[in-house]
Design brief:
The structure is a homodimer of 245-residue chains. Chain A has 245 residues and is mainly alpha-helical. In chain A, 66% of the residues lie in helices and 4% in strands. Chain A has a two-stranded antiparallel sheet with strand order 1-2. In chain A, β1 and β2 form a beta hairpin. In chain A, α6 runs antiparallel to α7 and α7 runs antiparallel to α8. The longest helix of chain A is centred in the C-terminal third of the chain and has 25 residues. The two termini of chain A are 39 Å apart. The interface between A and B is large, with 76 and 76 residues. Chain B binds a DNA duplex (30 and 30 nucleotides) through α3 and β2.
DNA sequence: GTGCACCAACATGTCATACAAGTTCGAGAA
DNA sequence: TTCTCGAACTTGTATGACATGTTGGTGCAC
């Protein structure tokens, strides 16, 4: 791939203490930079006591900093064991989206309105870029959907199909965004499948797969558009997203 | 508008202490629920000491909980003054997107690949749903772009145009997502404008505005698609997003 | 009376210490 | 060899103390 602008982590100067800035801020920045730069590549953070000595701050500051990193989903802390670095994922984004929707009274229908263009675009790229392995995974996902016994399995197979498409774009941000949306639509989707069955989803997936195999971008986009619009129609108005995690 | 599924905050039971769960978790949940439910509607949280008594926990716990809410961008804390509730915004999402892009080496070009379908869809909805006030604001934004002296003003006018379109969809999630993307593309856009001038942006905006005034959804979408693709072409490969906030 | 400077009360930031509770891992028993 | 158990380590919570920043009112100067 050609040289392309990247989101980089400039030389981390954040360690040097800034006068007037709370100690906590620089501590958070230092730890975040270390994590982003791949220090702690074994996934284990040093114990809080060690960090205190290294950074020259008290355990309160280290603890509060780690709490922030925990909410950012950069690390996971549990009592007794040292904190672990989490792999990059969509959980943080799902959190922020969830909070936003709760506080602005946005509806699931409006969320699906965002999903539509994303999935359509993903499908278009996938039709252009998918490789043999991706096609195989799509076939497997379709088969899993037909053979799934429980609603849980059906929902998983459905999600897997869309995820393979997103991965086939070669653009990780598509996967990231789709995951975040899926997280919020998860419960809703499960109930929809339980109510209307898998027929609509299966028909949609087959049409999409067929178009993709022909490398027909236009038809693939159209099929996905229809598939999503159909899913929106089937949205159960009583479905809500639970606020607890 | 019809009755539609909403993201709701179910009756907050999270206050009841769960055995084995760290005190901190329930404290975070309690405070978050209170904020989401509109307690503290004056925007001011009680002092930490008061919260300690109310929740029956020590100040350490309250402080760590507030740190988490701070990283979630739900509150803002500053020394000396009590913490304030922040209005819902896209900052948290921009954070998570930023972290994800840093850790996965995603490029700005890939980010723009996501922006394309979103903006096109937004423009389509805007062409259908925009009202007189929205049209007026679009005209003003175009005029501001032509009359802007500094790169800063140009960049602002550019952003304003896209923001009005997003707001015209009536779907707050579009605004939310676009804001988060814009935050990351901000520096890049500024440099692009400084390098290639406003002519391409201005031409694009005019074409879009013209199509929207005719309520021509197809033409509006096409014009926005061309506009964004043009912006992607002009992306300066040397542009990077700074990691500090 | 009006406006300013200043100070007291208050709130948060940071530190130190102590103990409770959970995890890990090796020594020793079966 | 395998299982059990406990010591050492690590995080969770509480408390008290002091530093630093903010707020609002008092009282002086004009």
């Amino acid at each position: 791939m050609a040289t392309v602008p990247r989101v980089t982590q400039p030389d981390s100067l954040s360690s040097l203490p800034v006068k007037g800035e709370p100690l906590l801020n620089s501590t958070v920045n230092t730890l975040r930079d270390r994590i982003m730069n791949g220090a702690y590549s074994d996934g284990m953070l040093p114990p809080q006591g060690t960090l205190c000595e290294e950074l020259g701050v008290s355990r309160s500051v280290v603890r509060e900093a780690m709490r922030q990193l925990q909410s950012l989903r950069l690390i996971e802390v549990s009592q007794g064991a040292p904190a672990r670095v989490l792999p990059p994922g969509s959980a943080a984004m799902a959190d922020s989206l969830h909070h936003f929707m709760c506080r602005t009274d946005a509806s699931l229908t409006q969320l699906a309105e965002i999903r539509l263009p994303l999935e359509v675009e993903i499908t278009g790229f996938a039709a252009e870029r998918i490789n043999a392995e991706g096609l195989l995974r799509l076939h497997i996902a379709v088969r899993r959907l037909t053979e799934a016994k429980t609603v849980e399995e059906q929902s998983d197979a459905d999600l897997e199909f869309h995820r393979v498409l997103a991965e086939s774009t070669g653009n990780p941000i598509f996967v990231f965004l789709l995951d975040a949306l899926a997280e919020l639509l998860r419960e809703s989707r499960r109930r929809t499948i339980g109510r209307v069955g898998i027929s609509p989803a299966l028909a949609g997936h087959l049409a999409i797969l067929q178009a993709i195999e022909k490398r027909d971008v236009k038809a693939a986009r159209a099929a996905m558009g229809e598939h999503i619009r159909c899913a929106i129609r089937d949205l159960d108005p009583s479905n809500v997203i639970p606020s607890n995690r």
